[in-house]
Design a protein that fits this description.
By secondary structure, the chain is of the alpha+beta class. The chain is 32% helix and 28% strand. The protein is elongated and about 85 Å long.
Length: 165
């Protein structure tokens, strides 16, 4: 049976605000571990070829802006090696890290010491981001490009996992 219980305006508003704040508070995001466990660029390329995601080639246009110049399904390092036979051209495989976590590889065409083209997995957010950062620059030391943990939103699960690794 319902009873008439006197409720003050202040307590009613306080309980309504509390209920609304619970309803609209964001859900806690849990970081998912990255699923890249490839010790070599060749194994990574083979896995991407088998997955069917494809590859994207980036280059700088005459204004220095990054543009997509090609998309294709499979990548063969042997084909790239035969295409670059110039004395000042070579292919380089660059490991991409966020913090200490290996997230993938990109392949670059180096001409006169600068990266002129980058081939990256299509749809791979961080390898594509790194590819755009590497174009027009010298090959990074140790053939590894490290993105800082700050690429993740602060206080996100990914950011916390990154800085704690």
């Amino acid at each position: 049976m319902l009873r008439n219980v006197p409720v003050s305006r202040k307590s009613f508003i306080a309980s309504a605000v509390a209920l609304c704040s619970i309803a609209i508070s964001p859900k806690q995001s849990k970081a998912q571990p990255l699923e890249v466990e490839f010790p070599s660029a060749e194994e990574y390329i083979e896995a991407v070829n088998e997955s069917g995601t494809g590859w994207t080639t980036y280059a700088l246009d005459e204004n220095g802006d990054v543009q997509i110049i090609d998309r294709f399904q499979t990548l063969s390092l042997d084909d790239l090696a035969t295409a670059t036979r110039g004395a000042k051209e070579w292919i380089v495989k660059i490991a991409i890290f966020i913090g200490k976590e290996l997230i993938g590889y990109v392949t670059g065409l180096v001409i006169d010491g600068l990266i002129k083209k980058i081939i990256s997995k299509t749809g791979g957010t961080w390898p594509e981001y790194a590819a755009k950062q590497l174009l027009g620059h010298p090959v990074p030391a140790g053939n590894a490009y490290r993105l800082p943990c700050s690429v993740y939103p602060p206080n996100s699960g990914e950011y916390i996992r990154c800085i704690n690794s």
